Write the structure tokens for this entry.
Amino acid sequence: MAWREKNANTVSMRTEKESKGRRPDAELTDRILTTCLAHLAAGGLEGLSLARLAADIGTSKQALYRRFSSKEELARASLDAALTTFLPPTPERSNPARDLSRLLQAYRQNVFLNDPGRALLKIRHLPAFEPIALGLEQELQFHIRQILIATPFEADMAVRIELFIAFLWHQAQVSENDISGLSSAQKLDHAILTVLGLTA
């Protein structure tokens, strides 16, 4: 996907730039990105303190600034790293409903109910982060389209895709269980069957 290629090129350029000077500590960089994403998920960009982040990691603010020029750049890099390393399951092509369940459950568990989704919920309205949220949605649209195309569910495909993505964002905002007693995974599977028109 073009979005993944753009992010990969950005990481590559940053690595090349760093390699000309001090060789970066890859393990420390990974911890910085992971911890930053957790802070973003908890408090958004406004709640991201580089001093507190450095203290939690056991490093210095200077170590952060050697790698990233600003808090915003660090936040973008943490999201890019998490989203580009997630690989969605390959569809089996024999059962669209099952393929959709595998795909959307993987995104639900690894993205929308995890730190990337929780972070994006808080910052996707900011201009610097809108492209990341849009890229996530476009990639998900592509994978859903690949499952639905040339199937009986191809009709109204754009509407179905919008409903699936909206439901995932909704699940990222609500608790795991509600008064229905259904888990978020069960509710997602029920939504898939409903949108496909497979419920009784």
